[in-house]
What we know:
Blueprint: H1 8-17, H2 22-40, E1 43-46, H3 48-63, E2 74-78, H4 105-112, E3 116-121, E4 133-134, E5 138-139, E6 141-142, E7 145-149, H5 155-162, E8 168-173, H6 179-185, E9 188-191, E10 218-223, H7 226-236, E11 264-267, H8 278-293, E12 297-299, H9 308-321, H10 329-340, H11 349-357, H12 361-384, E13 387-391, E14 410-413, E15 416-419, H13 425-431, E16 437-444, E17 450-456, H14 463-476
Helix pairs in contact: 2-3, 5-6, 7-14, 9-11, 9-12, 9-13, 10-11
Amino acid sequence: MEWNFLTAEQLVAALRAGEVSSAELTDEAIARIERDDDAINAICVQDFDRARAAARGADRARARGEDRPLLGIPVTVKESYDVAGLPTTWGLPPHRNFVPAEDAVQVVRLKAAGAVVLGKTNVPVGLQDVQTFNEIYGTTNNPWDHRRTSGGSSGGSAAALASGFGALSIGSDLAGSLRTPAHFCGIYAHKPTLGLAASRGMVPPPGPALPVEHDLAVVGPMARTARDLGLLLDVMAGPDPLTHGVAYDLTLPPARHERLRDFRVLVLDEHPLIPSGSAVRAGVGRVADALVDSGARVERDSPLLPDLTEAALLYTKFLFSGSVARFPVDAYEQLQARAAGLRADDESLDAARLRGMVLNHRDWSGANTLRELHRHGWRRFFAEFDAVVCPVTPTPAFPHDHSPDLMKRRIDIDGVGYPYFDQLVWAGLATMPGLPATAVPAGRSPEGLPVGVQLIGPMFEDRTPLRLAELLEQRIGGFQVPK
């Protein structure tokens, strides 16, 4: 049997039934990586010897009667996570030789659940791109079209899953870094509620790996099915044992509904600051049609929805306020001078990026107050709705673009160019207020490229968008093996 594209849930069942061993699954996954990854370049750090040893250990544990959630399942880990004995570079050449001594807390949880780590997946430089390439490890290609990006920053993980290199992977998301690669590669990913999953050890080299509470960034699961996302989220979720975990246990509420017809959904396919391409609108439409056909309550507009323009500008300021923390003083002063020259009425995304880069604490506090008002608006919204269906980005995967000045890059939307970073507004819709969002496949473009959508749910009710994703998978289909 070909095991590499079965779900983690199916593999767990096969292992429990004695139909296959972890050693066999691991050897088959390694063979596929060795055969196919030269063309994809998803696995940037191999750990095959330790993986085989871990697989044999999993088989012995099962023979003793042990049964953990991921016992014997081959997985991959985004390069930005610390794994003891393996390099953690974040694609930054000065840190190409940095090797942490301890595992990140999520790697500890994976191993405790019995997972077999095959290796680490490629990332963009500093995790700061919608594409995945760097000087150390090179470029990761999209398995559907090698001329195109797999997305970023968890692009290596998405490409690995689409290629059959392990059943699960863990990534991270600040500007769509889980959701965009899933959308581009035709897989599933879940951005958890802010703070739901501990992130210690997912830190730029050389560390230290402290239990920091991030303002926007989260860590989360990636898989080839919605149910596998839930399986991995159960392993990842929970507070850091060094901080909140001392006092708190996690209990996620169940999904609000079990049937599609019971869901109340707002569908969005256009943003006031950037158009959505025809392929993406068609993907959103397929999901909307499936919901309507199932009897769900579907709306296209609501006065309860927080203002999209204000939300995008606010998100952009927060996102870019953290991007210049390590800039040299002279470069920072040049940014301050440029920002001071902006017109007071300039409310463009370009202006928001520049203002964000030089945001002082007084202005940050004011922006944070506005964010809390948006969060409260979302609470009111989710009293009447269960989820929002909307794009992840305006386009399917685009051709590789390695031009060094990211601010001068353009994104092509149905033949019209737009500023490269404007595509992040859809990711920010969930990220700015800290809401959970599940990326799901929604068909393919006329060129045969995957198209996904995101399902945004209520804060700390992560099981609601995950359940909706599972029901939609049953209705419209899900992952397909790249042709």
